[in-house]
Amino acid sequence: MTRPHPEHLPGVLAIDAGNSKTDVALVSTDGRVLGTARGGGFQPQANGVEATVGALAPLVRTAAAQAGLPADGPVAAHVSACLANADLPVEEQRLHAEITAHGWAPSTAVANDTFGLLRAGTDGPYGVAVVCGAGINCVGLRPDGRTARWPALGTLTGDWGGGGGLASEAMWHATRAEDGRGGPTLLSAMIGAHFGLPGAGAVAEAMHLGDLDPGRLHEVSRVLFAAGEAGDPTALQLIDRQADEITRFVTVALTRLDLIGEPVPVVLGGGVLASRQPLLMDNLLARLAAVAPLAEPRVVVAPPVLGAALLGLDHLGAGATAQHRLRDAYPSVHPVAA
């Protein structure tokens, strides 16, 4: 296959890499999606930067093949990568260097995945975004470049919640209820039933022994919301705490950026928030209305790779027509109100 000349390459190789899944999209400069691919989670802190970025290569080849491009060499004019676990400047630098070394495009930009969520839910660099997926993180941004962000290294840096955190907390309460160290909760039986086992303790043992894939732990967060709908006090307490944690992120970000009294977009995304569980969303919206009544909350249900692609089009100077065309290829952003 003849290698395309640089000016004939697609505009953006967009990469959104989360803890649980990775999406790649090749997007033309006029906003058309030319190729896509999906892979597993992106965890350089566990698997190493070289191996983790290397695992993106088959996804890039798949998207390139759909676009009719050669399997090796440059595939776009610009790489826009929004990556989970790119939490510290040194991590962004290492990931940038490794992605650049693959030669997928003449230029590369790497940012934490919260920046992609923010761009997916807004028309420009203005607002606050909270990701509540496998983990939890927040970013705030003003057009003048002022930024509010967090290390997001888990409990070591004060984080609480997300799908993984909620699942672990639910298991903690459920197993303690079974062995007598904690009070009763519907979570014990409901977690067991979800996995076809006698209880949460049996689920923990099966995961420990390898009889049950530990990667399925995140499913417990869905059980948590079901228990909350059934009125379980323990589940309701955990859901309430998650709403409080998200509100704290938003409040601090708005305060740091002097936006607490402004009509500013608050973008909510990640699997936990995108599922729009009423118990969580109603609680969260009531809290946000109390602390930031002019804030404009909205839930992004589009794949987060949309934000990475929009950032890439921004870099290339693409106009509104291209951005609208790209948005039309993905589900919409839903405003929500208390």
Q: Biggest sheet: strands, sense, closure? A: 6 strands, mixed
Which word captures the global form?
Answer: globular
Q: Which structural class fits the helix and strand makeup?
A: alpha/beta
Uncertain ranges: none
- Major sheet: arrangement of strands: 8-7-6-9-10-11
The helical percent reads 40-55%
Q: Rg to the nearest angstrom?
A: 21 Å
Please state the average pLDDT score. Answer: 94
Question: H/E series, N to C?
Answer: EEEHHHEHEHEEEHHHHHEHHEHHE
Q: Please tally the β strands and state the result.
A: 11
Q: How much strand content do the residues show?
A: 15-25%
Query: Termini separation (Å)?
Result: 55 Å
Q: State the helix count.
A: 14
Q: Layout of SSEs?
A:
Layout: E1 12-17, E2 22-27, E3 33-39, H1 44-47, H2 49-54, H3 57-66, E4 78-83, H4 89-101, E5 107-112, H5 113-120, E6 127-132, E7 136-141, E8 147-149, H6 162-179, H7 187-194, H8 200-209, H9 220-229, H10 233-256, E9 265-269, H11 271-274, H12 278-291, E10 296-300, H13 305-316, H14 320-328, E11 333-335
Parallel strand pairs: 1-4, 4-5, 6-9, 9-10
Antiparallel strand pairs: 1-2, 2-3, 6-7, 7-8, 10-11
